[in-house]
Specification:
The complex is a heterodimer.
Chain A: H1 6-46, H2 51-81
Helix pairs in contact in A: 1-2
Chain B: E1 8-12, E2 15-18, H1 19-41, H2 43-61, H3 69-84, H4 99-120, H5 122-129, H6 135-171, H7 177-206, H8 215-226
Classes of the chains: A mainly alpha, B mainly alpha.
Chain lengths: 90, 227
């Protein structure tokens, strides 16, 4: 570890952090959205006449839940393809 | 990888014009041409589209949608066509450049305040914004974060599907990118609906305490123009 240049060290740490970040950033929103769909479907079976309202609310709520996963994806994309921290060492 | 980011094509008086802007011009001409053709041949299609948008907006806002329909309907159609037009060979998806979603989110931000001030008056709207006075910083931060989240949601969805299609295209160009292209078109229309619905929610939240304006005459005007 002592012979690594700072640039290579930053790249290695970036790769590790990207892997762990994408792992958490996709599993957690998927679990939470699955739970939301479960509750919405239960409500639809209980009251079929409210299905239209439930569908609209579910769609909007899923988009809002998905947006945090998108933030994680954007940060990981910027780190992998256009890492701004590499300029500090080169 | 360089072709993935927006390129500057030419400059007009020192202002660089990107390929996404040229795509937007082509898209605007296409929408106008389609509407001019569809007015004579299939007017029922345009009525269905406007009816769907009007029902969506008035369901969300809980009041007749007519004063807000030009702005929100234009937003929905613009984003839907913009997300789809990346399939045409020469053109680039306009929303894959972060400036386009940012511009639209800023317009929504200013329109929330404009519609609120038009309905409640400037002083009344500002008083509603700061009704418990400790909510004022929360309101300001909330408005800014809503704008940022609208931008990043639209931009992130579109550019992530574009990137996946580009990577698959670099690996196996023959038929394998097609399902991903289909998914990106479906995601594009869904994101247009989500953007419009969220804009309607924000405008409705800004108008909260005011009465619905022109309730009878709006429905009369729509039924008159339809018959």
């Amino acid at each position: 570890m002592a012979q690594l240049e700072p640039g290579t060290l930053v790249t290695v740490i970036t790769i590790l952090v990207s892997g762990v970040g994408i792992l958490l950033g996709t599993i957690v929103p998927a679990l939470v959205e699955g739970r939301a769909v479960l509750k919405a479907l239960e409500g639809m079976t209980r009251q079929p006449e409210a299905a239209g309202d439930l569908r609209t609310t579910l769609l909007i709520a899923m988009a809002l839940l998905e947006s945090t996963a998108i933030y994680v994806l954007l940060v990981i994309l910027v780190l992998i393809f256009a890492n701004p921290l590499l300029d500090r060492f080169f | 990888m360089n072709d993935f980011f927006p390129q500057v094509i030419f400059t007009v008086f020192g202002i660089p014009v990107r390929d996404t802007i040229i795509s937007t011009w082509v898209m605007m001409a296409l929408i106008v041409a389609l509407v001019v053709v569809a007015r004579r041949r299939w007017p029922a299609a345009l009525e269905m589209l406007v009816g769907f948008l009007s029902d969506t907006v008035s369901d969300i806002m809980g009041r007749p949608a007519l004063p807000f329909l030009p702005f929100l309907g234009a937003l929905a159609i613009f984003i839907a066509v913009a997300n789809i037009i990346g399939v045409v060979p020469i053109l680039v998806t306009p929303t894959s450049d972060i400036n386009t979603p940012l511009a639209m989110a800023l317009v929504v931000f200013f329109s929330v305040h404009y519609f609120g001030m038009r309905a409640k008056g400037v002083i009344g709207y500002l008083k509603d914004l700061a009704s418990p006075i400790f909510m004022l910083p929360l309101e300001v931060v909330g408005q800014l974060s809503r704008t940022l989240s609208l931008t990043l949601r639209l931009f992130g969805n579109i550019i992530s599907t574009d990137l996946i299609v580009a990577v698959i295209f670099a690996l196996v160009p023959l038929l394998v990118p097609l399902p991903m292209v289909g998914l990106s078109m479906f995601t594009g229309i869904l994101q247009a609906y989500i953007f419009t619905a969220l804009a309607a929610v924000f405008i409705g939240a800004g108008l909260e305490a005011s009465e619905p304006v022109e309730s009878e005459s709006a429905s009369q005007r729509v039924s008159e123009s339809a018959s």
